[in-house]
Design goal:
Helices cover 43% and strands 17% of the residues. It has 345 residues and is of the alpha/beta class. It folds into two domains: 51-160 and 283-310, Rossmann fold (3-Layer(aba) Sandwich); 164-279 and 314-340, Rossmann fold, CATH 3.40.50.
Length: 345
């Protein structure tokens, strides 16, 4: 009898253990927060497990740094918590195309949950590395996504297409007698090539000719600047060209000595010595990009379901110290619409 009682107790214990095991197995298989009554998923504890996001930034300069910081902020604004819902694996390629591709390949080998490519070369590298595994890619600061084949597939993001016409209007307002604009750009940066075409198409309407010089490497930029100075251009207009931005300080040394103003393409370039610009906010661009990534991570939409966005809003920024040094007067009505970078955060 004792044996039978012991056997019954043992069977009961085994039954309880099996029930618990089944519960834990089902929980681990589901692994997701239960949806609300309307079918949506709550933002708290939204991800089944912590997602790894590979962030690849093409070069180290303030505008791209702002993109990265804004991207993380956008994820947080969308209800995700760093360290709980996601972790960032950040790499900088230092404007090295080979390293750029290597880092993207490493992200793919590690099976990250999502890649973010900041600037066109990194976006292209991420998409190429992610395509076979169908890892979602979100890009930031790609001026012309269609030109670099980033409009189809498991990819979306934000375009930083420059407000070229607004820039031409600004230059005309500040330099009424100017006739020629010099631009240095990298031949291999398709964004820059596309933007040069925009400048050439719109410049005649504002009475300008464009003197554009393409370079193959960063080392060629000083000679290109010297050549444009020798042509007596009335000003330079800088793009978001990564190679050119990387040596902006040395360009400004030459142009300041020659008494030629340089117009930037975003606030950080104006803070660093360009006289003015009509440009977008790269932190805000990053925020929008991060919010897109959050939708993908939360399962609210796929990249294919999210069209890439071109940020159309821009502001005018002025560096009055640089303007005064070159004896350029900003009309009151123009100054009233702009932002003095000395007072900007």
């Amino acid at each position: 009898m004792k044996t039978m009682k012991h056997s019954s107790k043992l069977l009961a214990v085994i039954g309880v253990l099996l029930s618990l095991a089944l519960i834990f197995t089902l929980a681990s298989c589901c692994g997701k927060t239960a949806p609300d009554a309307d079918g949506s998923t709550p933002t708290d504890g939204v991800l089944a497990s912590k997602a790894t996001i590979g962030v690849l930034q093409y070069a180290q300069h303030p505008s791209l740094d702002n993109c990265r910081e804004g991207f993380i902020e956008g994820l947080k604004q969308a209800g995700l918590t760093e360290g709980t819902d996601f972790e960032i694996s950040y790499e900088n390629a230092g404007a090295d195309d080979a390293l750029d591709q290597q880092i993207a390949a490493n992200f793919s080998a590690k099976n990250v949950n999502l890649m973010c490519g900041i600037a066109t070369p990194s976006a292209m590298a991420c998409f190429a590395a992610a395509e076979e595994k169908n890892i979602p890619v979100i890009f930031c600061a790609v001026s012309d996504p269609a030109a670099v084949n980033l409009t189809e597939g498991n990819v979306t993001g934000t375009s930083d297409k420059l407000p070229v016409e607004a820039q031409l209007q600004l230059i005309r307002a500040l330099q009424p007698e100017a006739k020629s604009i010099g631009i240095v750009y990298t031949l291999s940066e398709l964004n820059s090539v596309s933007t040069i075409e925009d400048y050439k198409a719109m410049a005649p309407e504002y009475g300008f000719t464009i003197e554009a010089t393409g370079v193959s490497s960063k080392e060629e930029i000083p000679l290109a600047v010297d050549a444009l100075i020798a042509k007596e251009v009335d000003c330079f207009s800088n793009l978001t060209d990564n190679n050119v931005v990387d040596v902006l300080s040395s360009i400004l040394e030459k142009t300041d000595e020659a008494g030629i103003p340089v117009y930037g393409s975003e606030i950080e370039q104006v803070k660093n010595g360009c006289v003015a610009c009509a440009g977008i906010d790269y932190f805000a661009l990053g925020v929008t990009t991060g919010q897109m990534a959050a939708k993908v991570l939360k399962g609210e939409a796929t990249c294919e379901e999210i069209p890439f966005e071109t940020i159309s809003e821009f502001a005018q920024y002025f560096n009055f110290e640089a303007l005064n040094a070159l004896n350029i007067t900003v009309p009151d009505d123009v100054a009233a619409k702009g932002i003095d970078v000395a007072n900007a955060e």
